[in-house]
Amino acid sequence: MIQLINLTKVYRQFRAVDGIHLEVGKGKIFGFLGPNGAGKTTTIKMMAGVLAPTHGRIVIDGMDLLKQAPAVKRIVGFIPDRPFVYEKLSGIEFLHFIAGLYHLEQGAGLERRISGLLELFELGGWRDELIESYSHGMKQRLVMCAALLHRPRVLIVDEPMVGLDPKAARLVKDIFRREARKGTTIFMSTHSLEVAEEVCGEIAIIQEGRIIAEGTPAELRRQAGVDGNLEEIFLKLTGGTGDLSPVS
Amino acid sequence: MGDIWLLVKPRILGFRNHLARASGTRKKRALAMAGLGVSFCLGLFVISCRVLLHFQSAEVIGDILARYLLSMIFLTFFSLLIFSHVITALSDLFLSNDLELCHSMPVSLEKIFVSRAVQTLADSSWMVIFFGVPILMAYAYVYRAGPAFYFHLFHLSLAMTVIAGSIGILVTMLLVYVFPAQRTRDIIMLLSVGMLVALYFLFRFMRPERLVDPDAFFTIMQYMGALKAPRSPYLPTQWITDALWASLTGSGGGDVLFYMGLIWSTAAALAVITVWTAQALYFEGFSKSQEAKKRKAAGKRLLDRLVKWVERPFGSDLGAVLAKDMRTFFRDNTQWSQLLLLGALVVVYVYNFSVLPLDKSPIRLDFLQNELAFLNMGLAGFVLSAVSARFVFPAVSAEGSAYWIIRSSPLRLRRYLWGKYLFFLLPMAVLAEVLIIGTNYMLEVTPFMMGLSSVTMLFMVFGIVALGIGFGAVYPDFKHENIAQVATGFGGVLYMIVSSLFIGGVIVLEAGPVYILFMSGVRGVPVSPGKWAFIVVSFAAVLALNAAAVWRPMRTGLKALRGYE
């Protein structure tokens, strides 16, 4: 469903993403892990069509993102790490705005869909309030509603759990699993190894712009030669120890 | 003191890093802006010198006029400083993102407040210094001031800034204490725009142009009576004027010391009162400003109707973007309130033409009327460019940090940009025609000039709006805190220059044909075939220039927006 072919992004002399090759199948939840500044967000932004790659291709559902951007974007939902939205719109107006952008048919069906999503993300009571009065977590949930509104076949998510309380985080994980069961492919970057371990069937680890390991958690264990949890695999592969000794 | 310095330091370091680590393009832009700033200062200095020399040429009243002018300048600057401190204090003391960090540190509230007040003082005063220095240097030049004048100018201006700053900060603290900071911003914005509109009307309807025509007054007493500069012994600006005037003309050394004492003791007292008040009110106000309250959308039904009517012709995706723009615009008090300013500008613009003393001119009336109507196209074009710089140029930047939504959506950027263009075309065309037809009506121009200027303006609107959208896309600012500031950046200035050149180009190209046609009408002589050819070529060139002004900036803007990262 998703193919990244030799994907590269260079900022002046700095190679933020360095020739990535990845493939994600339909209905999979794919975890994209890496230390801070490894190139996760840059990769995600290129996949969402927000950044242009320096080299390489992004193919989604058989379509090249660079050549058929509107068609690809129509089947993709994007959830960025920071929920910047239009503060002077109410929640419901924002979702109607998104519906307009994706050419969703106006009418009772759309209203039901919007109401259903707002209730699902526990924003029903806030639908007519201006977004400027929402908390960070509420804005994040609203962005998730917007990303799911047009029933995307691919969901690209950058750090989904940032700013969410445990209840909302649990809800989001359940929704991702349900969407994946329905055939939606989810590509998700996260810092949270627990989340990755819990929901991702396959994982790739990126460091300094390159994929250094890829596969199911079991395959990663084999590659790292570690028999522990994902945290230990991650630390082994990325060269970190997590020791306090240098600080003390 | 060490803690206060530490709290101010991040701003200084940030500014230094911003300058030191700027890319080559940024450095060039900064140099270009600095060049423009220096040219502006020089121009202001030269004009001020000419005005003062003109005053000096009038015996008896020359010095009185110069002194009145100085008093008015200080009064204006003082009012601007208070006004600017009220607005800046709101963000520096209550809304800045780094305040949470500062308040969580083991530093006393007093020190946090003083460090922020110092920042407010710097942020609010630089613009007044920029405008004030050339004018005051003109006084020094014309009156051959000695070193004492510069010394007094420096420290007395500093004292005046402290007085204005203390008043401004006190007002803001009291307002935030009563209302939450987010609402206070709206209230201050509305009050300030209302005040500006009132001042603008007051100043214009006083008809200051009469003062340069003393013949219009019967006696010198009447003339002096018309100079209504407020003169009060309790105004700090009057103390500064009197002190500086004494220093400038070398008269009354004792006066200088007396006024220095008055000014500095007032500044010190106000500073202390401000810190005391802060100890009592600042933290509570800051705490209130952190609270988010549910806010319902006001005037929803009316806005919904307007939005539905406007978005209909643009299709689902573009309609959604424009509906969002309209809702955001009308819900942001800092935005729509500027329409009041625009309305005042139009009224005064048209009013100016009604008070032109055309009958006193030695030039034939019909000739003068048409000549003015022709030049008015340029002036109206310039006004339109200024309006466009404020409303059209920031149209792309208005997406702000939410621009990712547009980029990740299936909406094509070409459609997005042209949609924004079409959206602004109609209101700008209406404004242009109101300006040009209104003023032509006041001038009682010929039907030919009325038709020509209306059509020319209509064509120019296409170019002015395209330049605004195009330049706005080439120089977007998605990280702005206040959309009104977008137009004051490098891109906005460049847009104004290019737009003015475009308007000048159209006027120059049309001048020849209009003169030929007008003179043939006056003399009753038919236009020769050669001249007809010239007329056709000139008007074709106007059309070509207009087409280029639409096509080129839109294309460049689209390219820039596609490559934006």
Report on the architecture of this protein.
The complex is a heterodimer of chains A (248) and B (565). Chain A is an alpha/beta fold and 248 residues long. Chain A folds into two domains: 171 residues, P-loop containing nucleotide triphosphate hydrolases (Rossmann fold); 65 residues, no CATH class. Chain A is built from nine helices and ten strands. A six-stranded mixed sheet of chain A has the order 6-7-8-3-9-10, sandwiched between helices. A four-stranded antiparallel sheet of chain A has the order 2-1-4-5. In chain A, helix 8 crosses helix 9. Chain A is globular and about 55 Å long. Chain B is mainly alpha-helical and 565 residues long. Chain B has two domains: 261 residues, no CATH class; 214 residues, no CATH class. Helix content of chain B is 80%, strand content 0%. Chain B is globular and about 80 Å long.
Alpha carbon gap, first and last residue of chain B:
42 Å
Which blocks of ≥5 consecutive residues of chain B have pLDDT under 50? none
What structural category characterises the helix and strand content of chain A?
A: alpha/beta
Mean pLDDT of chain B: 83
Structural descriptors:
heterodimer, A: alpha/beta, Rossmann fold, 2 domains, 6-stranded mixed beta sheet, 4-stranded antiparallel beta sheet, 37% helix, 24% strand, B: 565 residues, globular
SSE layout and pairings?
The complex is a heterodimer of chains A (248) and B (565).
Chain A lengths: L1 E10 L2 E11 L4 E5 L6 H8 L7 E6 L2 E2 L4 H6 L1 E4 L11 H11 L6 H13 L15 H14 L4 E5 L7 H16 L3 E5 L3 H7 L2 E6 L2 E6 L1 H8 L5 H9 L10
Parallel strand pairs in A: 3-8, 3-9, 6-7, 7-8
Antiparallel strand pairs in A: 1-2, 1-4, 4-5, 9-10
Helix pairs in contact in A: 3-5, 4-5, 8-9
Chain B lengths: L1 H19 L3 H34 L3 H35 L3 H5 L5 H34 L4 H32 L2 H25 L14 H7 L9 H14 L3 H37 L10 H12 L3 H17 L1 H4 L1 H17 L10 H27 L11 H6 L4 H31 L3 H28 L15 H34 L5 H34 L3
